[in-house]
């Protein structure tokens, strides 16, 4: 078991998936990535989650994000369950589901929390940047399905920071004003932010959201 922290390089691994063998870093390539675990195949909350992720594929593609799911169930189980997800969620699962039967990936990413359940992964989420560093870690309990709109919101925020030098304030949503990062001196703001800015305090400078595309 290892502890992964923000800024660490996401551990590389080779795994069997519903779409064939995957070498994680090679598969990510230049993309952003989401690696997320779920407790088990053929469970109700997970079924809705994976169906939702399949439906959100155009949103992930737009943001250059690849998604991989994981559970400790095997490939045959994944295959049968994918049919159920497609049928019940009215979609087509279009991303790999890792079959982590030997728990190697779960251990690398600390996805099994024994005091919660010794035999199943919790609902971990890792967002990984193109340089392979971990940008976001969230852990949900088995009984709470994730909010994938929130995940898209965080990815938008991360990409605004990476590409446009802005942070996002509390409850920010796409289109709201952003915060100029503290590393930019107020005198330099005009050259970086042609849409203008408002200085609320010397340390709190707002600017209209830069374009994400
Ligand atoms: C589920 O995925 O539906 C689930 C898993 C464990 C506990 C509760 C719900």
Summed up, the helix count is: 7
Rg, Cα atoms, Å: 19 Å
SS content category: alpha+beta
| Heterogens | benzoic acid
Major β-sheet annotation: 5 strands, mixed
Q: What best-fitting shape do the alpha-carbon axes yield?
A: elongated
Low-confidence stretches: none
- Strand percent estimate: 15-25%
What's the β-strand tally? 11
Average pLDDT number: 96
Spatial separation of the terminal alpha carbons: 38 Å
Portion in helices: 25-40%
Which strand order do you get reading across the main beta sheet?
5-4-3-6-7
**What order do the SSEs take from the amino end to the carboxyl end, as H and E?**
EEHEHHEHEHEEHEEHEE
Quick rundown:
The protein is of the alpha+beta class and 213 residues long.
Description:
The chain is an alpha+beta fold. About 30% of the residues lie in helices and about 25% in strands. The protein is built from seven helices and eleven strands. Strands 5-4-3-6-7 form a five-stranded mixed β-sheet. It has a four-stranded antiparallel β-sheet with strand order 8-9-11-10. Strand 4, helix 4 and strand 5 form a beta-alpha-beta unit. Helix 2 crosses helix 4. The N and C termini lie far apart (about 40 Å). The relative contact order is 0.15. The mean pLDDT is about 95. Bound molecules: benzoic acid. Benzoic acid binds next to helix 2.
């Amino acid at each position: 078991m290892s502890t992964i922290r923000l800024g660490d390089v996401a551990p590389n691994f080779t795994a069997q998936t519903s779409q064939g063998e995957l070498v994680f870093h090679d598969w990510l390539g230049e993309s952003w990535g989401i690696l997320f675990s779920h407790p088990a195949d053929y469970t109700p909350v997970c079924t809705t989650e994976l169906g939702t992720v399949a439906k959100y594929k155009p949103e992930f593609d737009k943001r250059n994000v690849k998604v991989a799911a994981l559970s400790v169930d095997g490939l045959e189980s994944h295959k049968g369950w994918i049919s159920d997800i497609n049928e019940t969620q009215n979609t087509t699962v279009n991303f790999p589901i890792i079959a982590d039967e030997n728990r190697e990936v779960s251990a690398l990413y600390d996805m099994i929390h024994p005091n919660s359940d010794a035999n199943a992964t919790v609902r971990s989420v890792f967002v990984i940047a193109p340089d392979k560093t971990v940008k976001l870690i969230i852990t949900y309990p088995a009984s709470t399905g994730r909010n994938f709109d929130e995940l898209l919101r965080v990815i938008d925020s991360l990409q605004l920071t990476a590409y446009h030098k802005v942070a996002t304030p509390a409850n920010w949503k796409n289109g709201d004003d952003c915060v100029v990062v503290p590393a930019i001196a107020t005198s330099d703001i005009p050259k970086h932010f042609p849409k203008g800015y408002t200085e609320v305090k010397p340390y709190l400078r707002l600017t209209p959201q830069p374009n994400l595309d």
